[in-house]
């Protein structure tokens, strides 16, 4: 049986970089533990999936590693990132504006269906 973790980043505000490290790092750790990991960025956190945003953010001021570097590391570990469809309108994005590490756009039903029909755990930030 596949072990699955869904991390929902809804209230994690990209304007506060120190909020961004834990969920992305924990996603990487879970992937290293052989969990199938989806990170769904919704609401304000949806900005992270837009090209150029995460590249300008740092978890710690003065660190050479950007939030985008953390996303790339997690993606390389097997984490799948998604953005919610309302984020496209909310942040004036098109699918072509999404970072390559974003596996796609999902609607609200995707999260509900995943949680209710699959054997998974959910962490919310």
**CATH architecture annotation:** 3-Layer(aba) Sandwich
How far apart the termini lie comes to: 26 Å
CATH superfamily: DsrEFH-like
Number of helices: 4
Provide an overview of this structure:
The protein is α/β, with parallel strands linked by helices. It is built from 4 helices and 5 strands, in the order βαβαβαβαβ. Strands 4-3-2-1-5 form a 5-stranded parallel beta sheet. The radius of gyration is 14 Å and the shape is globular.
In short:
The protein is α/β, with parallel strands linked by helices. Helices cover 31% and strands 22% of the residues. The chain has helices at 21-32, 67-77, 85-90, 108-117, and strands at residues 4-9, 36-41, 80-84, 102-106, 120-124.
């Amino acid at each position: 049986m596949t072990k699955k973790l869904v991390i929902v980043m809804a209230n994690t505000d990209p304007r506060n970089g120190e909020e961004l490290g834990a969920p992305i790092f924990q996603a990487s750790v879970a992937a290293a533990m052989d969990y199938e990991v989806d990170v769904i960025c919704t609401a304000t956190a949806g900005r992270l999936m837009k090209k150029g945003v995460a590249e300008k953010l740092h978890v710690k001021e003065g660190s050479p590693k950007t939030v985008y570097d953390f996303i790339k590391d997690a993606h390389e570990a097997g984490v799948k990132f998604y953005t919610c469809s309302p984020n496209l309108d909310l942040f004036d994005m098109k699918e072509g504006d999404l970072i390559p590490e974003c596996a796609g756009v999902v609607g609200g039903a995707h999260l509900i269906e995943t949680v209710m029909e699959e054997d998974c755990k959910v962490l919310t930030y």
